[in-house]
Amino acid sequence: MKKAQPWIGLLARLILGGVLLVAGYLKAFTPDKSMMAVRAYEILPIWLANAIGIILPWLEIGAGLLLIIGVGIRYSAIFGSALMVLFIIAIAQAWARGLSIDCGCFGGGGTIDPSQTKYLEEILRDIGLALLGLYLLRYPNTKFALEKNKSREPKSSEQLTPGE
Questions:
Q1: How many C-beta atoms lie closer than 10 Å to residue 84's C-beta?
Q2: How confident is the model at residue 97 (pLDDT cuts 50, 70, 90)?
């Protein structure tokens, strides 16, 4: 398993980073739709929902790029996981309140026909992505990362001698 961890980490980085990058990119250049998608959840005041609709795509793009290139892995993984948990909460409350909305995760968003909602699939997807972020938090050393995290193992000069 120890030899597989860096490869699993690479896969986790590319999946979570890729999803964040694509999701952010699809929303970044259509701020009106992005703001509408956040407002559709009916949780936040309109001014705050609009601000989040404008800022969030760029944060997603940034975190996605950092994960893909392998810089700031732990911080980006924490951000990605926290974001997924927030998305899960938002989707679950919309579902529980009987709202018929598209999550707006990959652009679009807003009110849709009740038969088109995919709340369970969206929640399960976000749980999986949050778990990838938690994996990266625990195992940030991955293949082909630009940032090399310090290993938790002591260096040979720091190892204890017998009897200590």
A1: 24
A2: very high
